[in-house]
């Protein structure tokens, strides 16, 4: 499989954090994820995180600027994992973006009871999608990981999937698809009894987008 290597942000975390032993990095991130998944972002405590991770407050601030920096890093790492999973689906469906995204969302829904997935959804639920987008945009203004993924999708999506839509429209379409999938997943986590209705609405939206691409391609 052709792998899309997504670079880490330039400002977060610090090089000192990245040079730590993997076990210590994971211990700090586990402590942070635990805190962010149990209380609203405003109530999240750096003191609890460093106590759980077994590090000093001074050390924390040599790794991250603040708790925003830490949460943004967690969100970016999750997006990299989600992107890698999407790439697998794209390979499986030979570049058919519609089938790949459909399968990608269904498998994430099926995995929503997995501890890490459930924890990630709790973090997102407490932080909120607007804060997530704001943090990532402010901490990595260049959005390098997003640009690399979009470039990869442009290359790997089969021409038959999107017709002759120009590159700019394809990029916007990708963003709409992924944003809609994320919102659908969060709604299903928040209101599991509405899962069938949410998935149905997502399928309808994808159908509308697909017909729009195909009809535009059919015009003289």
Give a concise summary.
The chain has twelve helices and no strands. With 220 residues, it is mainly alpha-helical.
Q: What is the element layout, followed by pairings?
A:
Blueprint: H1 15-18, H2 22-36, H3 46-53, H4 57-63, H5 67-92, H6 97-110, H7 115-127, H8 129-139, H9 144-156, H10 159-162, H11 167-190, H12 195-218
Helix pairs in contact: 2-3, 5-6, 5-8, 5-9, 6-11, 7-11, 11-12
Task: Describe it.
The chain is globular and about 60 Å long. Helix 5 crosses helix 6, helix 7 crosses helix 11 and helix 11 packs antiparallel against helix 12. It folds into two domains: 52 residues, Arc Repressor Mutant, subunit A; 152 residues, Orthogonal Bundle (Tetracycline Repressor, domain 2), CATH 1.10.357. Helices cover 74% and strands 0% of the residues. The N terminus is likely disordered. The protein is mainly alpha-helical and 220 residues long.
Evaluate the radius of gyration.
19 Å
Number of strands: 0
CATH topology of the largest domain: Tetracycline Repressor, domain 2
Q: Outline, from the CA principal axes?
A: globular
Structural class: mainly alpha
Distance between the amino and carboxyl termini: 37 Å
The portion of residues assigned to helices is over 70%
Can you write the helix and strand succession as a string?
HHHHHHHHHHHH
Brief descriptors of the model:
Tetracycline Repressor, domain 2, mainly alpha, Arc Repressor Mutant, subunit A, disordered N terminus, globular, 74% helix, 220 residues, 0% strand
